[in-house]
Amino acid sequence: MSTATTTVATTEEAILKLTLAYDKEIHEEYKYSAYLPVYDTKTKFPPLQPFEFNDRGLVANKEKPNLLPKDNTSVKATKLTPVIGTEIRGLQLSQLNDLQKDELALLIAERGVVVFRDQDFKDIGLEKQKEFGKYFGPLHIHPVGSHVKDHIELHNIYLGPDNEYRNQRRSTRLTTTGYHSDVSYEHQPPGITILTLLSVPSTGGDTAWASQTAAYARLSPPIQALLEGLRAEHSGFPQAEGARRDGKFVRREPVKSEHPIVRVHPATGQKALFVNPGFTKRIVGLRDEESEALLKLLFTHISLGQDFQVRVRWEEGTVALWDNRVTAHTAISDYNVHNPQEGLRHGFRITTQADRPKGVNGLESVWE
């Protein structure tokens, strides 16, 4: 992996240091070179502040006549599985009006993940891409990840022969998969995430999502009742410590949050599990052995529940949008980055902040 550092003068005459996370020689003719991963190794951010969040799905027409008009046969929406995932063709994200975006927010909440095919989204420019994301909530800046140059809100997704960091972090495990909800340790963790891949392998590199609403519904009533009264600790400290250990820059200090294990979505009223193997560390108020046993049960349930999961193959022009409040997801790094026939997986993630999690009977997230 390239570790070259460049120095850039900003308009305030401050010196910005960028570490390249790619090999420039490999990408001299790459169409999306402006999106290649870099690390700003100087800019620090203060803790995120509480804010009032208005879910766009709350004002949407539940019948979705603007997004999915019944008299327009050119727009095709297909359920990918009965419980999670919808694929849409014949509709451009870049052309949606506000009514359509509101209905899209509700559809994402209901279906967990919505996959748009044949999109021009990756070619509309960085500012328009960010503007689209901001409609659904403030854009989250990842505390440790690589990003797009001059657009730190765009979290970079990159795995290629010149940067295998995303795989090396899991090199001691039998699988590269790891279900998680994006940065769930935040006090107001993300709602909608928009993932656009700019370069996709010819085969492999899929993404899978699990429905946390279905996962909750499958549990027996006594277990549901138990979980509804509990909070779990989500921590960003291991991620930050791992980044520092690997020589990466931590631009915002880590936090912990105690979120309800069962949260209620504000737009749908549905109950969903809100734990994930990536960031959930313990159940508050339980003995260590009790917490470990219960979390192991839930993590295994989420990871192995193929009858409430969907696996999506990426195509040219695919954009996936999901709601982190009702899903967990994982990349599937099953291809050989050193085989030119299989290629590079590169894209960017726009993640929007959302509400303070609320559970059953008024149980809310807390933190120190």
Outline the structure in words:
With 368 residues, the chain is α+β, with helices and mostly antiparallel strands. It contains 7 helices and 19 strands. An 11-stranded mixed sheet has the order 1-2-3-7-8-19-9-17-6-5-4. A hairpin with a 2-residue loop joins strand 7 and strand 8. The radius of gyration is 20 Å and the shape is globular. Residues 5-15 have low confidence and may be disordered. InterPro entries: AtsK-like, TauD-like_sf, TauD/TfdA-like. Its cofactor is Fe(2+). It holds the Pfam family TauD. Keywords: Dioxygenase, Iron, Metal-binding, Oxidoreductase. This is Dioxygenase-like protein.
Sequence-ordered SSE layout with sheet pairings:
Layout (H helix, E strand, L loop, with lengths): L4 E5 L5 E6 L16 E4 L35 E4 L6 E4 L8 H14 L1 E4 L9 H9 L12 E2 L2 E9 L5 H4 L21 E10 L7 E5 H7 L2 H8 L2 E5 L1 H9 L10 E5 L1 E3 L6 E3 L6 E4 L4 H17 L4 E4 L6 E5 L3 E5 L13 E9 L15
Parallel strand pairs: 5-6
Antiparallel strand pairs: 1-2, 2-3, 3-7, 4-5, 6-17, 7-8, 8-19, 9-17, 9-19, 10-16, 10-18, 11-12, 11-15, 13-14
Task: Please summarize what this structure is.
The protein is of the alpha+beta class and 368 residues long.
The total strand number stands at 19
Give the biggest beta sheet: 11 strands, mixed
Strand order of the largest sheet: 1-2-3-7-8-19-9-17-6-5-4
> Share of helix among residues?
10-25%
Q: Report, as a whole number of angstroms, the end-to-end distance.
A: 38 Å
Look at the helices and sheets and give the structural class. Answer: alpha+beta
Please, how many helices?
Answer: 7
H/E order of the elements?
Answer: EEEEEHEHEEHEEHHEHEEEEHEEEE
Mass-distribution shape: globular
The share of residues in extended strands comes to 25-35%
How confident overall, as mean pLDDT?
Answer: 91
Detail the poorly predicted runs.
5-15
Instruction: Output the radius of gyration.
Output: 20 Å
